[in-house]
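Here is the promised in-class demo. Please do not try to memorize the tokens; focus on the logic of going from shape to residues.
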């Protein structure tokens, strides 16, 4: 019997569940390696802004057992904004979750291959830091797309789930932001996606027991802790998940909270020992939440030509419309409640934040935190559309496809056009709040209809 005949026999005799799992695994592998290759081949600016020094801290931890980066700055120097002083030492001031989660990658790339994020004099080797960040970000971003596919599979067929995952792979900030450096969003989105997969898996378990809830709660509590340790803004997603568990899975909630509490206690203990404070050093300040001009900020967060969620991700609005229009055909839509809580509270916070314009970045970076929820809502909406009778569903799917195609264009610019990043020179020159409102100079058209030179001047083409 030849190989092809054997394959046919194996497929014919395999159980439906085994065949389905094999197909899902095959598609997941294609998604990972395909998106990974695309992310690595992207030619845009390496967005090492907030994340600069994060991998240097990883290497410092591996080689010296601490995260002190004092050797990166000579006495009397003004510290880069990513570093924060603590006594006579200085540390990476953004959350250390990414630093710790990246340890295996840094171990392999730096220690095993003889590379280093430090020059011989102790200063940061920015070129190596950038190179390593791009490699790790591509790995994590490709894994995010696989998790999006798995999340969609709880609602849709393999083909539809793969289509939705690809839509978010190239039509969302995964491409234009998460894969372009190791932003704190990158690991945070991966962990939130994993948390949602765990919840969906638990929801569909036919036979549950105390043992299964303990196992799932231990995993979920651990994932949520690391999500928050990576990016504190994930608290709104954790709030949505907590409300859902309170309503439907109280035993799982207790184990999840207990596990998270143990992780927090461990963090406090380590922080007291290493830094003398309850939490690691941070550049964040609660005073930045000023609550001023909330409605105006909210409006620009939605429709800014350079930061607007609905401009760069119009499918979010389309999905909202579909959920309402096809509400009679919604099935298994219980996760829309936590999604709504997470999206509403996250948006409300940044509408009260004086840095709502997102600094030097591309597109609606802050909303990258919500991508797993957007993916989940899209899968639920598409399932409802496909379950409805009549021809309107074709128009609905075409509308969604057009929105994702537009997303592919604008996020492709962010991932591949260096001049699109240089738009940030304009923001520095005239002020962030002014630049993000200039409809005649949207960031995604920088390099196409105009260019920005280093002093912030715009030159029309």
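The designed amino acids, position by position:
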């Amino acid at each position: 019997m030849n190989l092809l005949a054997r394959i046919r026999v194996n497929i014919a005799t395999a159980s439906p569940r085994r065949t389905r799992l094999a197909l899902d695994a095959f598609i997941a592998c294609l998604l990972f390696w395909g998106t990974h290759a695309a992310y690595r081949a992207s030619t845009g600016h390496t967005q090492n802004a907030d994340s600069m020094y994060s991998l240097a801290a990883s290497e410092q931890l591996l080689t010296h057992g601490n995260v002190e980066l004092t050797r990166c700055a000579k006495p009397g120097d003004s510290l880069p904004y990513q570093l924060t002083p603590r006594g006579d030492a200085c540390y990476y001031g953004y959350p250390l979750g990414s630093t710790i989660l990246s340890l295996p990658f840094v171990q392999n790339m730096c220690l095993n291959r003889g590379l280093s994020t430090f020059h011989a004099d102790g200063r940061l080797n920015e070129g190596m830091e950038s190179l390593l960040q791009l490699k790790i970000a591509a790995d994590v971003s490709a894994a995010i797309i696989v998790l999006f596919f798995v999340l969609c599979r709880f609602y849709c067929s393999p083909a539809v789930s793969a289509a939705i995952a690809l839509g978010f792979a190239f039509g969302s900030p995964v491409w234009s932001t998460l894969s372009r450096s190791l932003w704190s969003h990158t690991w945070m989105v991966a962990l939130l996606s994993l948390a949602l997969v765990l919840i969906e898996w638990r929801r569909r378990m036919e036979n549950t027991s105390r043992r299964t809830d303990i196992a799932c709660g231990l995993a979920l509590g651990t994932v949520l802790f690391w999500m928050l340790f990576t990016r504190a803004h994930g608290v709104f997603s954790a709030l949505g998940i907590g409300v859902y568990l309170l309503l439907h899975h109280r035993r799982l909630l207790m184990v999840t909270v207990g596990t998270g509490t143990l992780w927090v206690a461990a963090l406090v203990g380590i922080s007291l020992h290493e830094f003398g404070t309850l939490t690691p050093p941070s550049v964040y300040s609660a005073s930045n939440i000023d609550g001023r001009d909330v409605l105006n900020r909210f409006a620009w967060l939605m429709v800014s030509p350079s930061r607007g969620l609905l401009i760069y991700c119009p499918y979010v609005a389309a999905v909202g419309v579909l959920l309402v229009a096809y509400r009679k055909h919604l099935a298994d839509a219980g996760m829309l409640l936590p999604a709504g809580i997470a999206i509403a509270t996250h948006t409300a916070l940044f509408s009260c934040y004086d840095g709502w314009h997102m600094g030097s970045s591309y597109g609606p970076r802050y909303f990258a935190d919500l991508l797993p929820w957007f993916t989940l809502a899209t899968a639920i909406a598409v399932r409802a559309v496909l379950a409805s009778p009549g021809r309107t569903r074709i128009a609905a799917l075409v509308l969604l496809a057009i929105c994702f195609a537009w997303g592919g264009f604008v996020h492709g610019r962010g991932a591949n056009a260096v001049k699109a990043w240089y738009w940030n020179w304009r923001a520095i020159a005239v002020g962030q709040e002014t630049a993000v409102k200039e409809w005649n100079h949207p960031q995604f058209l920088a390099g196409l209809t105009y260019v920005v030179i280093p002093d912030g001047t715009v030159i029309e083409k």
